[in-house]
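Late entry, written up from scratch paper. The run itself happened at the end of the previous shift, but nothing got recorded in the book at the time, so transcribing now.
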Amino acid sequence: MRAFTVNRYGKTGNELQAADVPRPAMGEHDVLVEVHAAGVNVLDAKIRDGEFKLILPYRLPLILGNDVAGVVVRVGARVRKFKPGDEVYARPDKGRIGTFAEFIAIHESDLAAKPKHLTMTEAASVPLVGLTAWQALIEIAGLKKGQKVFIHAGSGGVGTFAIQLAKHLGANVATTTSAGNIDLVTSLGADVVIDYRQDDFETVLHDYDVVVNSLDDATLMKSLRVLKPGGKLISISGPPDPSFAREIGKPWILRPVMRVLSHRIRKAAKRRGISYSFLFMRASGDQLREITSLIDSGIIRPVMDRVFPFESTNEAMAYVERGRTKGKVVIKVK
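Output as recorded:
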């Protein structure tokens, strides 16, 4: 099958390589999916560049890709929820990524039926950002009606989804974006929109319950000023904390490393009576089914920027890395 692989880690001149590789092996609980479309994420670039090799030691060469929509072609002996011909979508488990390919094997617990009214390309844009928003706002934040949440980068992939989910939960939503995207984030439900090129969010926003950060460490530190005591700062861009090491079952020797990496932000948060959490979202077919119901009900809609052909996977990656996308970028494989 055709696939795009990472052959070595590195940031400079390290494009993915087009390759012919064997179809993935299947376990008894696995579902073989013919990939129709694959979402492209900043996470893909970070994995390619080696930023996660300490906590996600993939064996190279590695097929990249963390979002998929496609059709079931075969199921393992103990699979009960899916059958050949089903249209599905997923964010594969972090240890079994590889959606930039014609086929991928996914554990049935990580898979869900595709939303009925979405195309394959639209569906492929949802899993990673949808699960990230769900786990940040519902699992960690426990966001409630009437609370105030500040979501950085509202016009990006996570931002466009998180704004809609937060509004569905009844929260008051603030976000940052550029002037050209103000109408977009307002249409998604943002109540307060800050043009980051004109204003400093930390001087405008006060007494928020939750902040979801997807930007750099400097922005993370500034976000503390927005929160009230007892507030929650959730970062999907790091730094990882010791609880994350325990969660992913890493050896005890890595926990002090993560403690050091997150020491500054955890200390600053504690001083203000704020909790800090790092979120590296996990695969979940059950949560995807909840997300599917919101999409099928018209409560949440995917926001798409561009669709690239499979052979232009490297161009799609470069486009996402420029950091100016409106919603998601997707590769059309079939």
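The chain has a mean pLDDT of 95.
(Scratch paper discarded after transcription.)
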